[in-house]
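Hey, quick one: can you model this chain's 3D structure?
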Amino acid sequence: MPSSSLRFSGPAGLSASLLAALLALPAAQAQTAAPALASSEAQQLAQLRATTLALIDALVSQGLLTRERADAIKRQAEQAGAQAAHTAPVATAAAAPEAAKVLRIPYVPESTRLQMREEIKTEVLAQARKERWGEPDALPEWLGRVRVGGDVRARAQKEYMADSNVPAEIFRAQTSSPAWAPDLSNTTLDRQRMTLRARLEVDAKLSDQVQTGLRLSSGGSSSGPTSTSQTLGNQFNRYALGLDRAWLRWQPEWFQNKLAADFGRMPNPFYSSDLSWPEDMAFDGVAAQLKHSFAPQRSVFASLGAFPLEEFAGSTRDKWLFGGQIGGDISLGGGAQLKLGLAAYEFRHIEGQRESSPPPSGPRAGTGAYFSSQYPSSVRLKGNTLINLNDPTSVAAPTWGLASKFRPINVTAGLTLENFASTRLALSMDWIKNTGFSLSDIQARAGVSLSDSRDKPNTLLAKTQALQAKAQIGRAALARRGDWQAFAAFRFVERDAWVDGFTDTTWHLGGTNYKGWSLGGSYALDTRFWMNARWTSTRNLDDGVRYLAVPGDAASLSGNLSSAPLRIDVFQLDLNARF
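Sure thing. Here's the predicted structure for all 579 residues.
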């Protein structure tokens, strides 16, 4: 009997057919065996029957088989044995006229019986371990394919504002193009607060090809797209949880599981640092990743994605993010690993377009997507160049849109040294260049002149690059008591290098147009429980544009608000736990 013919679905499937057949086998063979059957053969048949009866009693004692069902199995076996005994004499009588012929009796060799016994035992035990037979507290099988985890972070944060910072009301008074950071509400008062981040995630493996995941987090939509932290202090009222991730992953067999496609709200599909995509960022849409390994530590990869940013019912100019990346991972020997990634992104239709006429009124009101190109205040932070989208006749408060188009190129490199001074050292470098900036295009959409002449207040220069260098030493993960990490980072971000609404909110409290550094360290106080401290210091960049606020008065020399003094220091002290 080949092992592939045996299929079990738990105790129920085992008790009905297999046990009855094993009980009936000794009786049937005893009736059809030749008189010369060896006594050892009879003993083995008796032993098989006794073993089967013991197995039935064991299943009953474990609660996997009822006594009524066990008795029914025994009766079935007795009936099968009696039928075999009745059939045997008839067959012998029918063969009497041919008594001279040799009587052929089926015989199963000892080696075959032993093989069958081992195959049955192996398959039954494997099924029992998988389905946890006989364990009173056994959970359903599907729970073995589900992983539940999460983390909680409690943070104390202090924000120091320099006395030399330009007051916020100066930024908020801007009404014409170009403008920078018109939403600032505090640039001079220090602030201290406590924040909380809580995340609960569930991942499930549905099959060898399909996975799914779900994550809830604190913060909600009020925290913006790049942060899941919740500021504490609301009269002890409850806080909202948001749907942070909900995705499906499909790995079809067509490419030997080298291709994976994600759908829904997913983790970052690109190799990057927090210069481009912050840790808490999630992506809505669809992404595909193709990876091929030449050796355990040598591989190449490619990623593509399409992500909706904003959809309009009355316009065909929906906002999208399209991205693609190629890269590779290679071992340099001696515990050194190098990883490179080259990515290109296009933020489609996010640039502002000034309206040419007043908002529609009467029956036409609400039938079109007026101001569809605005940069929503719920997303924007500070740093990017903005233009006023109001029509030329409007005297209303400004509606702001992005001046530049954004088609950034991102190069990311990481070098890991596993055996550096008996510990681990990770070095990374990230560079961004926005290739979508065009002064003539901005002037056409803004409807104003932004000539490149440094003696005019609205002069707009191309400031489109960003750079980050970081070194981290210590354990890759803080899993056990005594594990530690330390890091140092330098960052330089020009104003239109990246969309400021999709930036890390620790550096410069979010946004672009700054340079600075960050130092920090972490220490594990217990298993999966650690403390972290970090100091980040940044200041605004100066583009060098100067003009006379009062023509002819040398004392009125001034610059635009992109170059206005704005220095911010941030200290953070965290307690983190992961489960």
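One thing worth noting: The two ends are 48 Å apart (CA to CA).
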